[in-house]
Predict the structure.
Amino acid sequence: MRKLTFLVLLFVILTVASPVYAQGGATSSNWSVPIGVGLGMGLAAGLAGLGQGKVAGSVAEALARNPGARPGIQLALFIGLAFIESLVLFTFVLLFLRTS
């Protein structure tokens, strides 16, 4: 059943995406770009949120185990969160560059 669902989903994606690459006239509008931008940004922000939650949970566990290592753990926390957030900002910039 899972394989059938995957094949149906793959078929739907391929049939919806194929007209996008067809050569159009002067009046054709590219309707897939806003959809792609919305999906891309939502995916990037959602996965970054999951990553930040995992980082924060691990930091809380590390501080509970060893409170004396707080400065080092806190520094690693801020650097890790900055890297995760920068990936979302890069995605945001690239999506806007793609739409313009």
